[in-house]
Amino acid sequence: MGKSKKRSRTTANRLNPLRNGKSKNGNSKSDLNKDNATVTKKIQPLLKQLQSAVPNDRSMALSSVTLFAEDPYMRKLLLKEKLVQIILSRLLTDSNTDIIVESFGLLRNLVLEEGYDIATHLWRSNIWISITDGFTKAQSSLNSINSDTSKTSKESKRMLFDYIDNLLSLIVALANGSDSILGEILNEDKLNQLFQILIDLLNFGYDKIPANLFNTILDLIYDFSSESFEFIETISNNNVLGEFIKGLPELMKTSKDKNTFNELSVVLTQGIYLQFLDTDINTNQITEIVQNVLEAINDVDLKNIKENLAVLDNDEELAKADDAAVAEKIRDYSKKRNEAMMRLQSIEIAIDLITAVIEITATLYEDKSSNLQISDDFMKVFTDILPHVFQTLSEAFTSRILIAWNNLLWLFITLGVSIFELSNNQFDQLWHFIIDLEEKQKEDLGVKLGRLSVIWAILKTVTVNDKETISQILEKLSIFNNMSFINTIIEDYKSAPKEISDIEECIELKQRYCGILGTMASIQGQISINEIIGKFLLSELASKETPTVLLVEITNLLFEIYPDSNFDYDGPVFIQQGFLNILRDQVVPNLKAQFKFVDKNKDELLKEKCTETFNNLNSFINYKANEK
What we know:
628 residues, SYO1-like, ARM-like, SYO1-like TPR repeats domain-containing protein
């Protein structure tokens, strides 16, 4: 069963996903001159001030650096000037506790923004030792507060809770930055250290800690449970944490403190509930989870979020203000930003969670279709409410919504629901949304992948209809017998390696193109279209340059396209164009040679697929040779 994924590890602008515009950098001489001027006038004085002997100067500089680091251009320059090294060597051991606390927060932000490179650098610099040292100090402070009969100051508590919050959220950021780091964090020793600070916080009292720290605890549990079944098992077997997780849904319902269970808390609670239910979930629970998530984010104001996240962009006077004014502006900005980010994250996770719920529902239906009860409430949520929600959020969260739509369309196929018959012109709205992404997809690979996935799913949805309805729908979409559409897909497939240097991402993109081509080729009444696609797919199968994964997928596509001589294109194309001989003389030798290079010890699953595909190909050739 698919686990829900909270966030993409390659997501850009993580601290401000709604920020518009491109980062201000380049390689021209004027750009380099501007970089040098900015470094000299702004960056170097700040970094020098970070190493001042006066604590207040260091604190002011750190606040300014944290603020500037949210801008991609400024962050690039700060990192080039060894910001991370200064933090590690000086600020994490500063005599001023507030500086230590904020330094961990800055490291977290940098990891969230820069991902793998910064995460790996910190991990190799033994950041875990600094984190666990922080846990030890925090646990001691928690014990002191509990045993102290006199009232600890609000400021001391605030600093302690911020300290723990930054440590825990840094761990989550590191784990999201690298699979290998996640694996190391999930080993028994480190996990026990992590569990102990969580237990100490819960024993202290979840209702005594700030909402942001409570959310960070939930976020960590949700994030790790999204990635690891072993984590779910281990934390479930812990007496304190297991009971806490088990009681979370009821705690959410009975809690009257909205400061503790805000929008994000509710969404995260539903996410944790989903992960720990796993295969025991039923459609009533699925419906309840989706309804609770949608209710939690229903009143979130996207316009307000965007305005509060754009405060830094719009405040050009910040650099000119004196220290007192800067400090006040930073405090005000941070408060607004944190509130906005909480609400923004609640929407992001809500979309990811709903996407996972849809996938889980499809799996449930396929596994237990005879016993699965589909209620009217369930159908209303999935066929009426969710498409409307997706439409509302599509502009601000495009790549996420595309993944959600993809899953929903495949679920519709599984359930036998026709999107073309749903109320409120839902399909027309979806198709216009897809068409309007033509330009946006050129700048965002996530959008391109999502858009192609949805087109593929839509075409699959079309094919479950009768022949006449299929042609009518495709004509309405202007893609029936549309040679230009097919040629564009083929050319985009061929040009993918020039656009994307990452091999895995390139293969992923090509898989989407193949899915679209394979589906279009299997639709009757388009003999010329089938011929073009068929010849192209055969040329890919005969090429030594085609990656093994694609050889497997394209071969299986051929089985789906040409399974029956009664299809109108089989005779004119497969037989008359000599596809059988091409398979025997060119494809079989190439696949045999390529599949030999797959090492069973390195990729056992791919080796099994290669063997199965090759055997099926030989059977397919024999079948087609004797087909009447």
